[in-house]
Write a structure and sequence with these properties.
With about 750 residues, the protein is an alpha+beta fold. The protein is built from eight helices and 52 strands. Its main location: nucleus. Pfam families: Utp13, WD40.
Amino acid sequence: MGTSLFPFPPPSPFLSIHSSFPPQILVTASKALLLKQWDWKQAQCTRSWRAIHNVPIASMTFDPTATLLATGGCDGTIKLWDVVKQYCTHNLKGSSGVVHLVEFHPDISLLQLFSSASDCGIRMWDLRSSQCLCVLQSHYSPVTSLAFTPDGASMVSSGRDKICTVWDLKSRTARRTVPVYESVVLLPEDEDFSEIGVKTKEIHFITAGSKGICVLRVWDASSARCVFAQTLPSAPSAGDPRSLTYCLPLPSSLRLATVTAEHNILLYQLPSFTTQQQFVGFNDEVLDVKFLGKGDTHIVVATNSSQLKVFDLATSSCKILYGHTDTVLSLDVFKKGSLFVSCAKDKSVRVWRQDPDSGQVCCVAQGCSHANAVGSITCSRMKESFVVSGSQDCTIKVWDLPETIPETDGDMFQLTARVTEKAHDKDVNSVAVSPNDKLLVSGSQDRLAKLWSLGAPGADLALLGVFRGHRRGVWCVQFSPMDQVLASSSADGSVKLWSLQDFSCLKTFEGHDASVLKLIFVSRGTQLLTSGSDGLVKLWTIKTNECVKTLDAHQDKVWGLHATRKDDRVVTASADSNITVWTDVTEVEQAEEQAKQEDQILKKQELSNLLHEKKYLKALGLAISLDQPHTVLKVIKAIRQGEDGAKQLEKTVLKLRQDQKESMLRYCAVWNTNARSCLDAQAVIQVMLTHLSPEELLQYQGARAHLEGLIPYTERHMQRIGRLLQASMFLDYMWQKMRVTGAPAR
């Protein structure tokens, strides 16, 4: 398998983040009381400095020139920093409690700063004198946002007391109070917004939500009248996850960015208020993930939420799907890839359709008849004809789909269960349909897996057999796409392969240290891919019972595991909020290995030719490039055995590059440990020590360690040669004595 392509990181440890406009500088503040300045294009921290605040920073903002940074701390102080010259310019005291809002006046020549703290007042600071000019009192709860008119003469403030106040900054008085809610953004004055009811040139502003729900509204400040209210596909309610908490204007592109209660960012195009793009924030636990689309171009993700998220793998753009009212637990996709199903704790199942052209997704059918949370779901494999769900109420239900499935959610089809079967004694954790749509297998917390016959349409389920052997609950069951076997994974840490003929256990795979949560067949049924509570994903070869690869990219339970129809990519999703796409690089690695072997054969042939032609320098360089010490040794032996070998070796070694000499020194340290090759090593070392200075030698990488390694073996070789020399001298002495003794008498 391959590498991580699509990670979703956990939440940032930063308390406050702010960027300049245009966005060139990004500054973050952390709990460690450090400010860090980032080059966001290069994703690098350019500098960091310690904030003078004694407690964490609660708010930050840049001035219009992006040279001054204001930070508001939880200690009630405000500090201004010159980010160019890198020093603190002001220390403003007087605020009561946490300074949760700081904003510069848009006219930089005025050198004014506005702030709000826990006392609900808005302070106007003169930066020339570092004095508070006045405190604007109107709100009875913390102020959440400030917005200025282009001429800088007026300001609109919003607070948690559900009112917006329009201020005249010249007289420093409130002109009008409008009962609305939360964040406020002014509409640009030089654009035409007549299509949303803006008829005059008076101040108009947008509020993020009204009465605690998730509607954008446009207000006329002069009459305190709402001139436009956004319409939503479904009626919002109190506590709706779509509730908006913050607005940010993007004037250059005439767009509006909003933040929802679930940390998602939505970009709206003005003046139509149509959703252009969505960015997902923290996902919490990811419970399931499936590939989606005709070419597996998207993934659909179930997180610890009632919403589904559909990501485009090419652009990472996201669409959030609303429909379920409680946490979505499981997903499955039909064969064609455009239709998928989901089930949730709200006891319902839903069928969704993705438009292959536009990518839009809508709910086209739903069914609600389970008595408890629906924890598993699967769909038919041959045709889009039925769905099977397993629930915590211990039952399995079969839902028939209509022959013509609706195209839009306007005429949503209501599903009714064709079959309801009390299948297990405990929660049904997994259900799967065979490739021919004739069999169904279920796995339960009661440690059993059961095989059922789906029969003809309209027929009840018939129990064919029970698979017994797991010591704890069964988490996942899957049919093989090729053979008449099925696999099951359990909380006992094992995976078992079962025969559909006699219901016997054929193989057991053990390797996970904790529960095995998901499994799938890959490589045309010859391999298994499993994921567990230990955060590991393991690839098994069924024929040999061997784990051939372990993928370690998650820090928590891996709940989601799915492969594309071509088996060339796999997606995993974990409770650590990360989603990772893996690419199968087996063919690429095999091709690279084959090319490498072919290259080695060609180089060996070329080396043989060079030795035959006595081109020793090229032969030695080629042998070193192959990084094969034995081949280099053969070249050295060939040089020494040739005509005038010592001089030829000296000439060849000295002509090598420095990196090649470093390799030679490393090889010599190895050769010197063997009596058969020590003479060749000593010959090369002699050339180097004779013609290279100690300073030059010590500059070689690892030279000191290699030279120290040469000493003990060289001493041992010298002792051995000394003993041989003594023995040879004794033989010569004996020979001389034998000649004298046997000499004829004269």
